[in-house]
Amino acid sequence: GVNALSPTSAMVISPNAELLLNNNSNVIGPLSGAGKVTLGTGTLTTQMTEATTFAGNISGTGGLTISGISTLTLSGTNTYSGDTDLTSPGTLAAGATNSLAADSTVLMDSGSNLYLNNFDNTIGALSGDDGNVVLGTGVLTLGGNNDTTNFGGVI
After folding, report:
1. Are 152 and 129 in contact (CB under 8 A)?
2. Are 87 and 112 in contact (CB under 8 A)?
3. pLDDT at residue 4 above 80?
4. Pairing relationship of beta strands 105-108 and 11-13 according to DSSP bridges
5. Do residues 93 and 76 touch, judged by C-beta distance below 8 A?
6. Quick check: 131 and 113 in contact, CB under 8 A?
7. Spatial separation of the C-alpha atoms in residues 147 and 155, rounded to whole Å
8. Residue 155, Cβ neighbours under 10 Å: how many?
9. How many CA within 13 A on the CB side of residue 62?
10. Can you give the pTM of this predicted structure?
């Protein structure tokens, strides 16, 4: 059900395990591991109290919200198409080439960060009045979902 998971507990998903949201939105603590997250139409919110890496696949038409004081690094192939919402001071980092969801619009709040870590990635669109995008030597390609947005932050 909606918010059936613990909003403060770390969620470690083993390589052969799967977290099924069944179209429900839920809040968890830091996300890590190498398994699967199937959103359906739901949104998974991670409250990042420690830096973690998720090497698995996040799929579905739902979205991902990253909040908290630390960084979530995605290093697997992620195919979800809902929004990626970086709420202040949420930080998302690429851990591999094309590890960010190519069809997802990244929404950035003031104080939020998107780090490419020198990896080339494609996202659907970039939106928000503020936020920081750090490319390094990586190339960020926009337009994976043909959405038109405005971004007022720093790249």
Report:
1. yes
2. yes
3. no
4. unpaired
5. no
6. yes
7. 19
8. 11
9. 21
10. 0.94
